[in-house]
Amino acid sequence: MTIQRLAILGSTGSIGCSTLDVVDRHPERYRVVGLSAYHRTGQLIEQCLRHRPLVAVVPTEAAAAEVRSALREAGLATAVRSGAEALCELAARDDVDSVMAAIVGAAGLRPCLAAARAGKRLLLANKEALVVGGALFVAAVEQGGATLLPIDSEHSAIFQCLPEDRSSWARRIDHIVLTASGGPFRSADPATLDAVTPAQAVAHPNWVMGRKISVDSATMMNKALEVIEARWLFDLAPEQIRVVIHPQSIIHSMVVCRDGSVLAQLGTPDMKVPIAYGLAYPERIESGAPRLDFPTLQPLTFEPPDPRRFPGLQLAWDALRAAPGTTAVLNAANEVAVEAFLAGALRYTAIHRVIATTLETLVPGLAPDHDLDDLLDLDARARAAANAALKEVAR
Questions:
Q1: Among 127, 150, 173, which residue terminates a domain?
Q2: In this prediction, what percent of the chain has a pLDDT beyond 90?
Q3: pLDDT one-digit tens code per residue, 150-206
Q4: What number of other Cβ atoms are within 10 A of residue 206's Cβ?
């Protein structure tokens, strides 16, 4: 058996930790070559001591010095580097076969592009690579000969329902249905949402996730981003992507075929399942997730999203039909608004208003042949516009 050499970008987040959990179950299959973390240096040090990677990457030289000192004291020869360029170098290393891209936000775009251009097996848990990168990212995957495997539970479910021959997908698919739990406020009175606190918003009923994505789940902006991601992953028109609320989170998404058949992937709400599928594709390996016990399952229910509770969801289809780059503006505005909400500087219900105001005031202006620098410039302009909208809305 050939050992798969793995780099995990965002190793201290929930996806990164779950990936290492799956890897621990299969030491004969995987070798951790590199790890990266943003601010949890203590946890990164513990991961390095356990998995002994060749390289670890952190954002700043100060953080690198801290990690370097701890590892040196423990007698570990892991090279510790810092900065965005070091992250890209890790993603493109010759001795890395697979890259788990689990960095949250637009910051993950550059290393994802580096991995794609280097032809890696790219396990994509970073929505923003496609939401922001779009056509540029898809082109990099094709040109680099990379293998793109979705890790989001919904997109993994769609992928698992489709044959390996991608050229047949267009002939098979009528449309896809992304399921959503509805988050903690699925049945809340819309009039009460103005008083929602960050602690309430991150208390997801089914999934254990980071704070930002938990807020996105509460607002269903995560589903809006997944709609955009699905358009690029599966080469679908916006009208071929639909969303339904499924509170039990047992069916992770569905493919409706041209003959009317519906293919669905079911499982417990545990990210180790899509992670294990991505790591071993096209094989199946033990994930460590609990099995479904059908006789004891609660009834599976479905309902349409309520636009009063989730006004941001429709923005996905609007952005896909708008000028190129609009999805990048949507993403940047959401990141700014959610950060302000988590910091206590913005009301929960104002998150959508910041996003909508930013989309109204900023015209992307991307050229058809835009490159990464153009996208990063647009991201910066969108964040400036969102911060201006934040000040206006917060008055």
A1: 150
A2: 91
A3: 999 999 999 999 999 999 999 999 999 999 999 899 999 999 999 999 999 988 777
A4: 17
> In 181-248, at which residue ranges do the beta strands (DSSP E only) sit?
241-245
d(CA 128, CA 112): 10
**Residues belonging to the chain:** 395
Residue 280 tokens, joined: 């071993």
Q: How far is 365 from 143, CA to CA, in rounded Å?
A: 25
Query: Phi and psi dihedrals of 297, rounded to 5?
Result: -65, 140
Inside any domain, residue 158 = no
Could you tell me how many helices (H) and strands (E) the chain has, helices first? 17, 11
The reply to whether 348 and 372 lie within a common domain is: yes
In this structure, are residues 207 and 249 in contact, taking their beta carbons and an 8 Å threshold?
A: yes
- Domain containing residue 387: 165-268+301-393
- pLDDT classification of 41: cutoffs 50, 70, 90: very high
Q: How many domains does the chain have?
A: 2
Query: Contact at 8 Å (CB) between 213 and 147?
Result: no
Please state, in angstroms and rounded to a whole number, the distance separating the CA atoms of residues 180 and 163.
24
Helices (H), 92-220: 109-117, 128-133, 135-144, 153-161, 169-172, 198-201, 211-219
Task: Examine the domain organization and report whether 186 and 215 are in the same domain.
Answer: yes
Is pLDDT above 80 for 105? no
**φ/ψ (deg, to 5) at 67:** -65, -40
What secondary structure does DSSP assign to 90-122, as a single string? HHT-TT--EEEE---SGGGHHHHHHHHHTT-EE
> Both tokens of residue 73?
């004291």
Establish if 275 belongs to a structural domain. no
Residue 39: band (very low, low, confident or very high) from pLDDT cuts 50, 70, 90: confident
What is the value of pTM for the model shown? 0.93
| Residue at 278 is within a domain | no
